[in-house]
Design brief:
The complex is a heterodimer.
Chain A (H helix, E strand, L loop, with lengths): L4 H5 L3 H8 L6 H17 L2 H18 L1 H4 L33 H37 L1 H16 L2 H12 L3 H28 L2 H8 L4 H37 L11 H9 L7 H28 L6
Helix pairs in contact in A: 3-13, 4-6, 4-13, 6-7, 6-9, 6-11, 7-9, 8-9, 9-11, 11-12, 11-13, 12-13
Chain B lengths: L1 H5 L4 H37 L4 H6 L5 H10 L6 H13 L13 H36 L4 H15 L2 H15 L24 H7 L3 H38 L2 H8 L4 H38 L5 H10 L3 H29 L5
The chains are: A mainly alpha, B mainly alpha.
Protein name (chain B): Peptide/nickel transport system permease protein
Membrane topology (chain B): Multi-pass membrane protein
GO cellular component, one term (chain B): plasma membrane
Chain lengths: 312, 352
Amino acid sequence: MTGAPLPLASESSGMRAWLLSPEPHSRWQARLGRFYLGWRAFSRNPLAVIGLGIVILLILVAIFADVIAPYSPITGGDLRTERLLPPSETYWLGTDDQARDIFSRIVHGSRVTLFIVVLVALIATPIGLLVGTVSGYLGGWVDTVLMRITDIFLAFPRLILALAFVAALGPGIENAIIAIAITSWPPYARIARAETLMIRNSDFIAAVKLQGASTPRIILGHVVPLCLSSLIVRVTLDMAGIILTAAGLGFLGLGAQPPMPEWGAMVATGRNYLIDQWWVAAMPGIAIFVVSLGFNLLGDGLRDVLDPKAAK
Amino acid sequence: MASAVMNRGGGHASALRSSLKNIAQFVIVLMTTLLGLAAVTFFIGRVVPIDPVIAIVGDRAPPQVYERVRQELGLDLPLIQQFWIYLKKAVTGDFGNSVLTTNPVLTDIANAFPATLELATLGTLIGVILGIPLGILAAVKRGSFIDQFVRVLGLAGYSIPIFWLGLMGLLVFYAKLGWVAGPGRIDVTYSYLYTPVTNIVLLDTAMQGQWDAFWDAVSHIILPACLLGYFSLAYISRMTRSFMLNELAQEYVIAARVKGLSEMRVIWRHALRNAAVPLVTVIALSYANLLEGSVLTETIFAWPGLGQYITNSLQNADMNAVLGGTLVIGTAFVLLNLVSDLLYRLLDPRTR
């Protein structure tokens, strides 16, 4: 959804008039028109555009990592002469203790980061959405039970719960993803429930009910789509937290295992050489910072557009 | 809450009844949450791929011995019964022994907790002392340089990995500039000059008049405390700004100005007093968050607190210690949330 409106915004004024037409001829035109308005509001916020730029850059780097990275991220150079070299023209960000090019590792690490973020979002969002909408729509004891479970998961500090889960499941990137997903869904469930409570009593739901729609159909077909926009904002704002938690797990040696170029684990390696070869720890940390900043800026911008009530 | 408002006019008896009902509701919520916490840790303990019996008897023990230990540990009982035993033990503070230190987990936690408390408290203090004035300034001078500054500070606080910032802090202030002491709580030379009473080094040394040791402890704690303080500040200043903006837009502020009150008085006596109510919640929450932040910070600064205890135990597959620590931090988290909720009701007359 990010790339599409770009060419539209710069098209001729006829296109603009078509998009902004107060009487759209098709649902599609109306939708695109809303989208265009949203994009205009979004692009007025320079920080949000920077955030979007960072996220797009992350995706591009992850896709073209093989082309961009000048060296292999896994196998290093000559251990006698190319170990722990400072940043130079050959090695832009220096080399690490295995004589690997740090720049190449960071470039490939973008794939790991993207992989974690996307998978966590794909696992946690549907769970939260389902729990929240079912809980809000059905109400009664189902609501009480589901919300109490949600509260219990909310009661744990996120990193600590993830730590405990990884301890039980064993270290590794898949388990780290599962652990982070388990700790991520409760806030989404809360938001989805709040939205559902507002939607539940609308006339159109009553109409659908009179037409004989089943409860699953109402929840999946009518309630869930309306909850999506505020949930997308929340998930985007959460991405930075997910990245930081994953990096924290990696730093503690519980996330991605060596030699995978995960940024948090790379900082952990650099810790041993902090005082004399600072770049080994510093560079991957900057990468984590820039990417989480990008997601935070993007999330703030999206919130202003999609959820004006929450923005202050 | 709603029922409390409706019962307003119902006289003394019904007010009492409604507040009793509130308390009962609180207790039930607290109990189910704690029960859930225990259930989660119990469940995690069961899915661990480590066989606790083999961990004790070794993998060459004869089957009879294995079976006997299994029965002693109660692992042959139905799961629900095992959970009941686990609960009964957890209530009395018995989390089993740590494999790593051979002490009861509770003793270890009691030893480690003051260190975490010391660090998190100092961090929150720094966050409150700097964060609230910054937030107020940002709200009063909206759109100014200071407002942008607070915004950037907040955004960075939400985006910087805490462990990385800690390492960079060590690199710059300890290794390069030499302004602060390195990892640890106190230098070995000073560590025998005082007797640990509260296990909070700053208090112990100060109360016993060991000022050299006190200043050494200060130079050790200042960097990790500032680190946690920064993350607390990022959160508190952002929330203060938003609460103050909300209050400053209210009519009573206009009324106060029309009355001719000085701007300082309007801001500090009127707007801030009203913004203070939600701020208390925010401070309690940030305190709870620092408990979490301390896990990574303590690892970096070799700070012998709960966070380091959990990560050390993790790396040694010491599940009793991990789950005990998780349960304790989870409980502290729940209680802090509850306290903030109670304080909110206490401070804000509208919720009564």
